[in-house]
Amino acid sequence: MTLGSDVSRLTTTAASAAAKGLSIVVPVYNEAAGLAMLHERLTGLADTLMTRYGLATEVVYIDDGSADNTLAIARTLKADGLDVQVVSLSRNFGKEAALMAGLDHARRGAVLFMDGDGQHPPDMIEKLVSHWIDDGYDVVYTAKAHRDNESATRRFAVRSFYALINWGARQKIPEDAGDFRLLSPRAATALRQLPERNRFFKGLSNWIGFRQIRVDYEPAPRAHGVTTFSPGRLIGLSIEGLTSFSVAPLRFASLLGILLALSAFIFGLTILWEVWTTGKQVPGYPSLMIGLMTIGGVQLIMIGIVGEYIGKILSELKARPIYFVAEHTEKRADGEAAASERTAAE
Question: Rounded CA gap, 55 and 50, in Å?
Answer without folding.
Answer: 5
